[in-house]
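Dear H.,

Thanks for agreeing to be a second pair of eyes. The structure we're designing against is below in token form, covering all 374 positions.
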């Protein structure tokens, strides 16, 4: 009798599990990501192998070793995958024959620009660290596509449950101009070109079958520890009430406004496609405006101090990189917004991801997540 009861309990649990599974499928079956170091999960590390010493502090918080990510742990893209019940995205250059890729692939490359290298050469600007631009990443996707689906119907069925992320991208283009001109007025000339490239790649993805695409804006670079160090000013009026360089944040607001305008035009041309804007600017700026509310250090310089680096008020020296013998690592990265001068900590990326997934910084909203971001 006891065995019969156990059988019925097991059968009932399995049956209910199947019903729940079919009633609540994954919101997204796959994620495909394009971008730069903000979301690269291993492409640059593979390309430049060996890129980091095993004792490097990168990855120390979560992975306990370098993981191909330019942070101490997980990135926004990792938290997004986690929220939707998907595995962390494999880097395109890390793929092996026969590897399961049905849940998505990451094409982002640290140092990538929106514009191709030719632009920077022609303008005699500081050349980007790589020629793996956004269009190169698009070419990688097109090359991989036959491994994902075999014909239009199969691809349409597959991509209708997939999320595509085009960016963040453009930050390295902007940095190239900052380092070349060191003049905020010169930056606006590049904005239409970056926006046009992002929209062109997004349009190509729509042609390939994408029907849900997120296009993030850019971050408040006036609060970035590297920019604060490189572009430091003796004029206190150049800083806002929180300690960020006001002119650079005003520029990013302009950039994001232009990007939003272009996205809206693209929406009107493609009414069957859901195009989502990620407001990385506001999502991140709130951390610098009320750091203590989110568990970060609070103070004139402490809020902006990089966890890993050396020297100066922000623990940033452009000649001493995180991971080098002269650099130091803070005792508690979770108390810092900034990781290495240019990039943020896992703790900051987690909060930004929550703002995207749970709101209110995605417009329109993403589908409901399967799990809460822990």
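And this is the sequence the design step returned. I haven't edited it by hand at all.
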């Amino acid at each position: 009798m006891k065995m019969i009861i156990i059988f019925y309990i097991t059968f009932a649990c399995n049956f209910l599990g199947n019903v729940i599974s079919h009633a609540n499928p994954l919101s997204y079956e796959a994620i495909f990501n394009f971008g730069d170091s903000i979301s690269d999960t291993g492409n640059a590390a593979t390309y430049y192998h060996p890129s980091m010493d095993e004792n490097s502090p990168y990855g120390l918080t979560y992975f306990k070793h370098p993981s191909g990510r330019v942070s101490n742990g997980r990135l926004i893209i990792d938290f997004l995958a986690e929220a939707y019940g998907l595995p962390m995205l494999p880097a395109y250059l890390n793929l092996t024959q026969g590897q399961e890729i049905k849940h998505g692939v990451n094409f982002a490359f640290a140092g990538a620009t929106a514009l191709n290298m030719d632009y920077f050469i022609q303008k005699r600007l500081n050349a980007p660290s790589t020629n793996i631009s956004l269009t190169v990443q698009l070419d990688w996707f097109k090359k991989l596509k036959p491994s994902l689906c075999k014909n239009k119907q199969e691809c349409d069925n597959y991509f209708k449950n997939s999320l595509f992320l085009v960016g963040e991208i453009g930050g390295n283009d902007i940095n190239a101009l900052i380092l070349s001109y060191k003049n905020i007025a010169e930056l606006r000339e590049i904005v239409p070109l970056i926006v046009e490239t992002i929209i062109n790649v997004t349009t190509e993805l729509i042609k390939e079958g994408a029907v849900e695409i997120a296009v993030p804006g850019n971050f408040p670079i006036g609060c970035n520890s590297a920019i604060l160090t490189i572009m430091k000013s003796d004029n206190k009026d150049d800083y806002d009430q929180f300690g960020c360089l006001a002119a650079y944040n005003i520029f990013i607001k302009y950039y994001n406004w232009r990007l939003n305008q272009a996205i809206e035009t693209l929406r009107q041309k493609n009414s069957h496609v859901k195009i989502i804007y990620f407001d990385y600017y506001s999502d991140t700026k709130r951390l610098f405006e009320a750091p203590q509310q989110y568990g970060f250090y609070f103070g004139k310089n402490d809020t902006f101090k990089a966890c890993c680096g050396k020297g100066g008020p922000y623990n940033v020296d452009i000649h001493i990189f995180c991971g080098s013998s002269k650099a130091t690592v803070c005792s508690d990265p979770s108390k810092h917004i900034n990781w290495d001068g240019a990039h943020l900590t896992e703790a900051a990326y987690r909060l930004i991801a929550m703002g995207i997934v749970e709101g209110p910084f995605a417009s329109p909203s993403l589908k409901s997540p399967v799990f809460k971001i822990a």
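Two observations from my side: The longest helix spans residues 246-269. Residues 35 and 108 are 4 Å apart (CA to CA).

Warmly,
E.
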